[in-house]
Structures are given as structure tokens and as C-alpha cells.
Amino acid sequence: MPRCDAWSGPVAHAAREALATGDVKLVEAWVHAAWRPELRLAFDRARRASADGPSGADVATQWFLETAVRLHRLGERAPFVGLRTV
Predict the structure, then answer these.
(1) Which end of the chain, C or N, has fewer beta carbons within 10 A?
(2) What value, to the nearest 5°, has the Cα angle with vertex 21 and ends 4 and 8?
(3) How far is residue 72's CA from residue 70's CA, in Å, rounded to a whole number?
(4) Residue 12, number of CB atoms within 10 A of its CB
(5) What is the pLDDT of residue 3?
(6) Above 50 in pLDDT, residue 1?
(7) Backbone angles phi and psi of 84, in degrees to 5
(8) What pLDDT digit, counting tens, does each position of 4-62 carry?
(9) What is the DSSP track for 28-41?
(10) Angle made by CA atoms 8, 14, 19, in degrees to the nearest 5
């Protein structure tokens, strides 16, 4: 079973889908309501940065995935030490 803090985990998958479709609600389900405003702000910034071309999209995607997983882990009261490759 994929870990929630992994690049291949369900939170990162939902974050990628959200960016690809423009629907932040796909990843909001993984984040506690208290931190959803921060998630939405990160989503909007990542979408704008992605419009700057492939290099901007790569950086924006990584940053948004890390933000989504960090906020998810915060809701679990678990530390975030970065996205894992498992």
C-alpha cells in the first residue's frame, strides 16, 4: 500500500490530478478543513507558475505536492520530512 508521504502515494496522486484538471477539490479531501485555505492558495500559485512553461511547471508541481502532503501530515499530527520515494 502506498504511503501518504510518498511521491507515488494517494495524496501526491490527488495533487497531480488536481493540477492537471484544475479541480483543487480532488486533493482537498486529503487535507483537514483548517488548512484548506493554505492548500487553495498554493494551488492557485502553482497553476499560475505552471503557465510559465515546462521548467516552471516542474517546480510548481513539486512545490504543490510537497505542500499538499505537508498539510495532510499536519492533520495526522505527524511530521513531514519530505516526499519519500518508496
Answers:
(1) N
(2) 25
(3) 5
(4) 27
(5) 82
(6) no
(7) -95, 150
(8) 777 888 999 999 999 999 999 999 999 999 999 999 999 999 999 988 888 888 899 99
(9) HTTS-GGGHHHHHH
(10) 110
Query: Contacts for 6-10 with beta carbons within 8 Å, 24 or more apart?
Result: 6/83, 6/84, 6/85, 6/86, 7/65, 7/83, 7/84, 7/85, 8/85, 8/86, 9/69
pLDDT for position 55: 80
Per the domain annotation, does 85 fall within a domain? Answer: no
For residue 16, give its domain range. Answer: 10-75
Question: In which residue are the cell numbers 482537498 written?
Answer: 28
How far is 83 from 2, CA to CA, in rounded Å? 12
